[in-house]
Amino acid sequence: MTTNRAPGKIIPRAFPGIKPSEVEELIANSKVQSYPPETVLCHEDALETIFYMILEGEVEVTKVINQTEARVLKTLSAGDFFGEMALIHNAPRAATVTSKTEVVVLELNKESFDRVLQHSSSVAMALVKEISERLRQNDEMAIEDLRLRAGELAQAYQQLAEQDLARREFLTNVAHELRTPLMAASGYLQILQKGRLQGNQLNEALETVSRNVGQIISLVNDVLFLQEIELVLPAFQPVNLGEVAQGIVKKYEKKAIERGVHLKVKNERNMPDVNGDSKSLERAITALVDNAIKFSPRGGDVEINFEKQKDRLSISVEDHGIGIATDQLSRIFDRFYHRERSGDDLFGGLGLGLAITRQVIEQHHGKLNVESKPAKGSKFTMVLPLRNGT
Ligand code: CMP
Question: Is the CB of 259 under 6 A from ligand 1?
């Protein structure tokens, strides 16, 4: 410690204009103490009655905000005082004061402090000035904090309102999407009940009922799947996506042939595992393959291609179908975005597939990209981190 700790020199720095006799009185009523670093001299909210003037060293003044965070208000050094607020207001400590270094302080108890205050107008003036400044600073901090909290609350409210709107829109969409196949199935059932249909007509009616019921089941399954994966993160296991893709190709073989689509998978052998939930990943790739076939009304190749990239695995599904207009690209992952027609072609489906794919890939910390040109086709690429980065 190098400063001159003589109280006679430091006191006039704190109380400008103080008379030599008043300095003498202050010294006579106080005692010099020293404390090691990290000593708490004032405890916020405690009833304590010592006034301090720093002769040497530094202290830190902190205040608890929001009942959790301790905010630093100021660092005080030689010539500064603290502990005056509680004494003047007869109140608990307004903040906590902790020594940052070893400190030497002049201490006055409440009686001595009152006595000095009554005899010395310069001490009283300096105290009033400093206290009003400190109170203003503390109030400003509290107000700033309230403003911040009000901002956070407003933001949370906004988010809730947006979520609520999205949920309501989602419900309306589900109801709407259910109504179409339900109405169709129920209409045909009424005709069937009359018992007048026979032969081909009967078969067609049964076929329509069955197709519409299938659509309802598939929508309900998709909605449940989306809700579930949002709520519960499945346990991750090593998954061989090459095998998953082969399984999907097998499942879609018949449908692809019917549509004149040549469905194939390339480079899937010997690809390393990813870490994930195999059912969800299967569903994500299935949705891409399903779309690729659906949106290739003139047939053509649909290719699932694998590529290892450093610590990631890329799986793309490419078709040569109707493609997607550039201004629609940002919307295709939205729930219930679906294309009913392109030129003369009509497309069924409920528009949840890509929303599912995106959600699954996000959950697997992967990325999903799309490149597409109208009338040329689309390529969806998912990139997933490999298991243990192998
Ligand atoms: P008291 O409330 O008795 O105890 C804690 C002390 O911290 C307080 O008196 C002041 O001396 C000091 N203090 C409170 N707020 C501030 C501030 N904004 N700047 C500097 N010191 C402060």
Answer: no
